[in-house]
Write a structure and sequence with these properties.
This protein is an alpha/beta fold. Helices cover 31% and strands 23% of the residues. The strands form 4 sheets. Strands 4, 5, 12, 13, 14, 15, 16 and 17 form an 8-stranded mixed sheet that branches. A 6-stranded mixed sheet has the order 7-2-1-11-19-18, with helices on one face. The chain binds flavin-adenine dinucleotide (FAD).
Length: 341
Amino acid sequence: MKLQSGARVAVAGAGALGSAIAVRLARSGWTVTVFDPAGPGDNASGVAAGMLAPVSEAVFDSASREHLAIMRRARDLWPAFAEDFGIPLSRVGVRFEGAETWRASVAERLRGLGLAEADFTDEDWRIEARPALAALRRAAEAAGARFEPRAVADFAPGALMLDDGRTHAFDALVLATGPGARDGRLAPETKVLGPIKGQILRIATAPDGPVVRGDGVYLAPGEIGAIGATMEAGRDDRLPDASATQTLRAAAWALRPDLDLDAATVEVGVRVTTPDGLPLVGWSAAPGVMLAVGARRNGWLFAPLVAGMVAAYLNGDNPGPDAAAMDARRFEKPEGQRAGE
Ligand SMILES: Cc1cc2nc3c(=O)[nH]c(=O)nc-3n(C[C@H](O)[C@H](O)[C@H](O)COP(=O)(O)OP(=O)(O)OC[C@H]3O[C@@H](n4cnc5c(N)ncnc54)[C@H](O)[C@@H]3O)c2cc1C
């Protein structure tokens, strides 16, 4: 499906993916409205530590192990993207710190990925998530996109229904709803998505220097430091839960015994994942619905890549080398058919 330039596109969700897509489409001449009932940044994108971390993710997240090349390509889009939107990009890198046995296991995983053993990599970068989200929204609005604080309830080409019962004329719907629309009603492919609750600690006095990755924890510097994060598969509530964050605190203290965590605040977000850890990007079986969901722990890392792919799909252009791996309908096909693509 290809849309005429100027067509009316609704984007459901104003997280990292929806916002990056909105600005990209608005700048390319589409008439864009972003719908989201949540306040700005009141989502996983606002809570995130903002790491753009292909190497760490491949090392520490088993679901991302196979995706190092895609994650590196996604990261490499960031310098131009960040400059375009005035998002400060920190290239401080990541240091691996911990007991000898743990460092040996990291070294082994690095070797398994074809990377040199090291306690430091300058491959992983970082942004501040909330200011980045605000920058994308400003740029989208400057390009003509509108933001409306409503949820999308239903869609058919030409008729978008909101949660207040109003219907508006839109030609296409981009579903960037994070964990929000998983019942298959707006797009059947979303039924494969699973939520992963994440709790993260924020501290005012964060240590300077690179991000530190330790056993079961990371410490990220910044205006407000981040200590993260829990991975609670199957949970989509946003209630802080001391039993989970206690483990995080203990892991942080093991690395930095002098950290004052008593004043730390807890933030909670819900990631959403596909079975293979890559997002669903592309046309749904539902007419006129484009998917951009399921970015797991890498929504910020993937935002420029996914936005470019969505724009290419809508324009009828080539969505690039990662289209097959992220194909929105890949889980509905039999194994044999997939291999032959
Ligand atoms: C603790 C934590 C730390 C993380 N750290 C990192 C990190 O360092 N680096 C990284 O790349 N990623 C990180 N992530 C993951 C990242 O936050 C997510 O992958 C990313 O935010 C997903 O963005 P999104 O736009 O798809 O979804 P979200 O940010 O979840 O936004 C979806 C939006 O859709 C809205 N919505 C839902 N239903 C509807 C509807 N029907 N109509 C309209 N709107 C709707 C919601 O209100 C929400 O605002 C982290 C996540 C957590 C929880």
